[in-house]
Design brief:
eight-stranded antiparallel beta sheet; six-stranded antiparallel beta sheet; single chain; 10 helices; 3 domains; alpha+beta; Umud Fragment, subunit A; about 425 residues; elongated
Length: about 425
Amino acid sequence: MRGHAANWLELAEKVYHFRRDVLSPTDVADLQAKSAQLRTSLKERSDVSKLKLGIEALEETLRRTGGKIYPKSSFVENIEFLLVAAIVILGIRTYFIQPFKIPTNSMWPSYFGMTPQVYPTPKDEPSKPMQAARFLLLGASSRRIDAPADGEVLLPVGGGQGRSVFYNRIVSGRTWLVLPTKLREYVILVDGVPVTFRVPLDFDFDWTVHDAFFPDQPSLGVAVEKAIRARQAEVRTVMIDGRAETLRVIRTGKRVRKGERVLSFDVLTGDQLVIDRMSYHFVRPSVGSGFVFRTGNIPGLSSDYGDQYYIKRLVGTPGDRIEIRSGVSSTSDNAGGNRSTSDASTVLMRNGRPIDEHAGAFRKNNEREGLYGGYQPGGILELGQVATIPDGKFLALGDNSRNSLDGRSWGFVPGKDVVGRPLWIYYPFTNRWGPAK
């Protein structure tokens, strides 16, 4: 009861200071008197009954003098609660930790962006209950494409908006059937009849095509080149959404009948991380750690992609000299999980010696171990070039060097745009769940 009394006195103080200029002298005097009586009872540690009487007397006065401060409707109280909760959440996101979703595979296989799960035949497709479970656990969304006619499956190449080999265009769509977003629309032909379907904007459809139609080829590029050399490519004019489009297509060798499955795959969501925004206010970013930054002040990124959050791996701090040196021929896996033996290995160097911080990612890339495909020279890190990092800036590269738009192309990250480092992969629930590498 004493706790209740203290709360009522606090409310009375608020009403007095906020509303005394609009209250009558009588109401002001009554409010002060009732508050004084309850304060005295509280100080004298009066019994419960006397405290209760004092609270009831003060409450009656507050009901008459409180205006919009007291009494409040449940609706107003709920709105105030939601506003305070929103302010707290925004404060935590701004200064402490922030969720972050990886859309692309520039850091694969350390962090996964959206990846495909291809089903060779309808028998391999998960059941409806399993689809629901995969949606909850893996963020998997299904794409099932059936043939509109009998014939061979043809893939239009070129004319894509983005880095895809295949013809595509960006269209408007909705997330969760409500929020507006941009999607990427692809076209597959079955004996000249188009089938269109949509995937998230950053989804790697080329990976899907390789796994679905050319799994025995070392890479998708090799498969396309072989098809062209073998004259399995041709030019066709097809009608897409009422417009005539002249497309170059390659043959897949897969023939289907009307209604049969042409392509079946799931889009698996990218890793979702918790980002530590606090540490870098007190400690210097360390080479080898995951590195989250904003792109708004990076020429070549801000103009094309706006101000976004990127995640790469930090390879150099101010004053470091970074280069990529050639090595010997090696066999490696590329971003589609395919073997490649045509490239010479490379080694990422820092200040004249192989970079060894965070040995997992650097060593595996330098040695082309497992799914790590090595560092691709280019931009400011062409073979024979040394990039010296200016004061106040950092250099960051993707672990999946062959499929990463990173510091080789657009240079250095200003120190003021550094956001933080990844702490924890909290979704999806795979073997990567846990502390971020």
